[in-house]
Write a structure and sequence with these properties.
single chain; alpha+beta; six-stranded antiparallel β-sheet; five-stranded mixed β-sheet; 23 helices; cell shape; peptidoglycan synthesis; carboxypeptidase
Length: 938
């Protein structure tokens, strides 16, 4: 505003009566002047009096002032600092505060002063307040609104950063150059060592690659890989924005790391970088390169190079070798179903190989086939006509480095690194690493030698699994997964499953002790004890044995099913499963169901799972995850991966001490006494599944945990069957061959180790011992009367029927007698009466036929013989009893003809010769005649 013009605002306030006044004008370059009026007459018409400014006013120093509006009351106008010219005029009174100007103007009117009072003119507003670039805190606002940014400010900040980000991306894209393809000829071999870091276990390296042209790759192979890996491949700009955002969001939330990589990104990784990137900076570089490649190269060319580059498992690089490895044909001859199978396993080819994990391979095949429908490559009808080509997959023979038992170890090394680290199968074979495993070479050899010494008559289809863990670290010290990886690539320790049997009972024991119970609690250990959830026949003990009233320690040592069934129902089957999972059995293991029978081992875990769980017991409640890779290093130094994870306490020490004590009694006086030959403290548990389809011994010392499992597979290799007895055993149980193998191996493995003791028994919990009460004698009673008497006395009743001479329904025996725990079960035997069977009529049959028919009918046979002229020799003359019925097992006497009596023909008597004439007896010598006496008369 020019000097001399009035300001565009209202008058200044006045105050006091009129009087002589003096006018003073203060002028500045910018700003307003304040005038005060003293007592006197107010300015005419309520407007200030204006006087021209002097020349000096124009030379005044510049200043600014904010005029504040005084409303209806007195007001004061602040003046700017600067030189001024003052003119005095008479006035009266002291004026009030001037009003605030808001328009743009310069200078102001002066005020006069008279007699101690000042008269004030109206204050002219300055040129206006200067506007700030960022109005924050907000001017003219009070309270919280002063600190809340305006929408203009927020929008401006967002636009600023968006433009900044766009500019950065444009710059990064422009500065990104497509590098030369990775030279596979310079790939280095990865060497794997045993735990001594000196003994070589094997190697990983590039094995096979045959490049093929795009014309040789059938359309359905291209369509299958697109459906499997990147369904928007032909439409996206080299990256899949949806997948990328989903992966970033998942990673930010802390979920499993996801790549969100498109086919072009994977191609950039493998073809140009030669490695997998999983950090955000690397992913950003990969994405920029993928976008540039998509603009510079044809999508079909990218897909062709991708299929010639990636790893398909079975040491196969590129689609041509993969087709040969899986189906024995070239890529040009692959069917649609075969192409879908190969495409589906690309993310994890060794773990999803159809001969290793057919279920997962089929799931991926379904995913690819459905994706081909979704992308329009095939119709739903064509998809429905295809079947999973598992029967067309050929057996695979790997290189010699995988031959023998160490092939299972090398396969585990690869599996662990590709699932737990950022190292891919491609990198493992191309980048060159030095890998040290946890496998002790001496223990590993002891495991191989011990299995080789199994009895020679062991069945050929018997599978044996053995694994040893270190309780302190979880390191796998030895593992026998099979005799030769090249013949059977399925690892018996990590991939096969076997029903756990009684090795599952310790999990119930742990849950039982955690619930506040004690080892001294007692239960009915008889056979066929009725327990809720086990049916009317009750729980059957092994061999139908009864043990009477026993404590938990005895029940553990003798593996008494009826006691552990009662314990499991008491704590709840869910508690048993929860304890097993905490110890190390996977929650999704086959058969992990919350049913009362799970205590008897209905679950079928991997042998490594059971070793893991028992290893937690050996560490007295501290769980460590099993691992086989100690460290991975670059060949030029620098550690890439370390396998050991932090331990976690999952069970209280007192519970573990009591659990271990009870399990030592299995070895001291139960089914595991063979392990006493180790000559040091051993805790463990035998296990045998139904029909002897699997047999276990899992045991531990303070230094090592070892699990041994045996099972027999059918000819198709997929189902278990009863183990054929061998080694002089009538049946294979956990207490036979498995524990002998365990002891033989551990004797070698622990040779020279210090003998350590387990912690002493802690006796946690309170014993649950029911009082002993008299048992009614019910022998001789009818079964209904006996049951009423026993149940009236507070007992449960378990009965069996037997044939006996007593009347049907009569109790012929009971167990126990005298006293028993209140509420326990009393077993009674009830007569069904004498049993009879029909006696076959064997009269006239040959002896052999008669004996066979009688024995087949359940009778014993007594044979006697008798001459007969009417029954041929060797045939039955009679039987006793003959026909009718007799008690099974009784003796039937048969009389067998020995033929007619023997007739002895006497020879005709010869005519007696006429007797020879008897010679006359000689005359007796005449007695001598005495001499005659002389005759005197002569």
């Amino acid at each position: 505003m020019a000097p001399g013009n009035p300001p565009p605002h209202g008058p200044a306030s006045t105050g006091g009566p009129a009087g002589p006044q003096r006018r003073s004008v203060i002028s500045g370059a910018q700003g307003g002047n304040a005038a005060r009026t003293g007592p006197g007459t107010p300015p005419a018409a309520g407007r200030p009096q204006w006087a021209p400014t002097s020349p000096q006013a124009g030379a005044a120093a510049s200043g600014s002032a904010a005029a504040r509006s005084g409303g209806s009351g007195p007001a004061r106008a602040r003046t700017a600092t600067g030189a001024s010219t003052r003119t005095t005029a008479a006035s009266g009174g002291t004026g009030g505060r001037g009003g605030r100007g808001s328009g743009g103007g310069r200078g102001g009117s002066g005020g006069g002063r008279s007699g101690g009072g000042r008269s004030g003119g109206a204050a002219g507003a300055g040129k206006g307040s200067r506007r700030r670039l960022i109005d924050y805190p907000r001017a003219g606002k009070t309270g919280i609104r002063r600190w809340l940014p305006s929408w203009r400010l927020v929008l401006g900040v967002i636009l600023f950063f968006v433009l900044l980000l766009v500019g950065f991306v444009v710059w990064a894209y422009a500065s990104t150059e497509v590098p030369q393809p990775d030279d596979f000829a310079e790939a280095q071999t990865t060497t794997v060592y045993y735990a001594d870091d000196a003994t070589e276990m094997g190697t990983f390296g590039v094995q096979n690659r045959v490049l093929v042209s795009g014309e040789q790759i059938p359309d359905h192979m291209r369509e299958a890989i697109v459906a499997a890996e990147d369904r928007t491949f032909y439409e996206n700009p080299g990256i899949n924005p949806t997948g990328l955002v989903r992966a970033v969001w998942n990673n930010v939330r802390g979920g499993a790391t996801q790549g969100g990589s498109s086919i072009t990104q994977q191609y950039a990784e493998r073809y140009y970088f030669g490695t997998t990137v999983d950090d955000y900076r690397g992913k950003a570089q990969e994405a920029l390169l993928a976008v540039k490649l998509a603009r510079q190269q044809d999508k079909d060319e990218i897909l062709e190079n991708y299929l010639n580059t990636i790893y398909f498992g079975r040491d196969s690089y590129g689609i041509e070798v993969a087709a040969q490895s899986y189906f024995g044909v070239g890529v040009a001859d692959l069917t649609r179903a075969q192409a879908a199978l190969i495409a589906g396993i690309v993310p994890s080819p060794n773990n999803w190989d159809p001969h290793v994990n057919p279920e997962r391979a089929e799931q991926r095949w379904d995913y690819v086939m459905d994706g081909m429908v979704e992308t329009g490559a095939i119709t739903q009808a064509e998809r429905d006509a295809e079947t999973f080509p598992i029967d067309e997959v050929v057996e695979y023979s790997r290189s010699d480095t995988m031959a023998g038992p160490q092939g299972y170890l090398l396969s585990m090394v690869e599996s662990e690194l590709t699932t737990r680290s950022s190292i891919s199968s491609d990198e493992l074979r191309q980048r060159g690493y030095r890998i040290t495993t946890s496998i002790d070479p001496a223990m590993q050899q002891a495991a191989v030698d011990s299995v080789a010494e199994l009895p020679e008559d062991a069945p050929e289809n018997l599978r044996t699994a053995m694994v040893t863990l270190d309780p302190q670290t979880g390191a796998i010290r030895a593992l026998y997964g099979g005799p030769d990886y090249l013949e059977v690539s399925r690892n018996a320790v990590t991939q096969d499953e076997a029903q756990a049997g009684s090795t599952f009972k310790p999990f119930t024991l742990v849950a039982y002790l955690e619930a506040g119970n004690a080892l001294t609690s007692r239960y009915d250990g008889n056979n066929r004890v009725r327990v809720e959830g086990f049916g009317e026949e009750g729980v059957r003990n092994f061999g139908d044995s009864s043990f009477g009233n026993v404590d938990v320690v005895r029940a553990t040592a003798d593996s008494i099913n009826s006691v552990y069934a009662q314990m499991n129902v008491e704590v709840g089957p869910e508690a048993t499963l929860e304890a097993a999972v905490r110890a190390g059995v996977p929650e999704d293991a086959s058969g992990m169901d919350p049913v009362p029978a799970n205590v008897l081992g209905t679950a079928s875990p991997h042998p490594l799972d059971m070793a893991h769980a028992y290893n937690t017991f050996a560490a007295q409640g501290i769980r460590t995850e099993p691992y086989i890779v100690e460290t991975v290093e670059y060949l030029d130094g620098g550690q890439v991966y370390e396998g050991a994870e932090l331990p976690e306490r999952v069970f209280e020490e007192g519970v573990m001490a009591d659990t271990t004590y009870a399990m030592t009694q299995v070895v001291q006086r139960g089914s595991g006494t063979a392990a006493q030959a180790l000559g040091r403290p051993v805790a463990g548990k035998t296990g045998t599944s139904n029909d002897n389809r699997s047999a276990w011994f899992v045991g531990y010392t303070p230094q090592l945990t070892t699990a041994v499992a045996m099972y027999q597979v059918s000819e198709d290799g997929r189902t278990a069957e009863t183990i054929t007895p061998f080694g002089g055993y009538s049946q294979i149980t956990g207490g036979s061959v498995p524990i002998n193998l365990w002891t033989s191996y551990m004797t070698r493995a622990m040779d020279g180790m210090e003998v350590l003791q387990f912690p002493p028994r802690a006796d946690v919990g309170e014993p649950n011992v029911p009082p002993m009460v008299p048992v009614p004698n019910v022998v001789g009673m009818h079964v209904d009367e006996a049951r009423a008497a026993l149940e009236g006395a507070g007992f449960a009743v378990a009965g069996t029927e037997v044939a006996d001479a007593a009347a049907p329904g009569t109790v012929i025996s009971q167990s126990p007698t005298g006293e028993a725990q209140a509420g326990s079960a009393i077993s009674i035997s009830v007569s069904t009466g004498p049993s009879t069977a029909e006696v076959p009529d064997v009269t006239g049959l040959p002896e052999a036929d008669a004996v066979a028919r009688l024995e087949a009918a359940g009778f014993s046979v007594s044979v006697s013989r008798q001459e007969s002229t009417s029954v041929a020799e060797g045939r039955v003359i009679s039987a006793s009893p003959s026909g009718g019925e007799a008690e099974p097992g009784s003796t039937v006497s048969i009389v067998v003809s020995s033929g007619p009596p023997e007739v002895v023909e006497r020879p005709s008597p010869e005519p007696e010769p006429e007797p020879a004439p008897e010679e006359p007896e000689p005359d007796p010598e005449p007695e001598p005649v005495p001499p005659a006496e002389p005759n005197p008369n002569s």
